[in-house]
Design brief:
InterPro entries: Polyketide_cyclase/dehydratase, START-like_dom_sf. The chain is an alpha+beta fold. Helices cover 29% and strands 45% of the residues. It has 3 helices and 9 strands. Strand 2 and strand 3 form a beta hairpin. It is globular and about 50 Å long.
Amino acid sequence: MHRFSTSVASDGVVSASPDTVWKVLTDPERITRMTPLLHRIDLVDGREDLWRWQLATVPVTGMTVVPCFTERMRFAEPTRIDYTHEPQGGTQERTGVEGWYELTEVTDGTHLALGLTVHAELPLPRLATPAVRGAMHAVMGTIGAGFSRNLVRELERERTG
């Protein structure tokens, strides 16, 4: 088993108040609807700060991975969300994410910045690192582009009621 990881960072301004953006980004049902390849988010033991993410099957270098991971969510309303991979009860999760969102009020709405690192433990040699990272980055790009489009739509729906 080898641990592979890749990171992304992004930022931009959305035409919504920080409170509205916050409301959307802290709602697991909305996150699920907005995020391509995400099947569901469950609150572990009903806890608002512990989310279990279940994604679709993802092809990675001749094999498929079904990412499922638990994240500790830390909310500093209304400016920051941090999340850390935190498997529960001795469960071994071979995928996980570490990341953050930062919301800053600006004249035209909210400056939204994010950074995240995805890791996956796979039965592949280290020599496969460039190919695996490339595949991971491509999947993250697809998810990110879809999420961005869907976030803008969701914020527009929130604004217009």
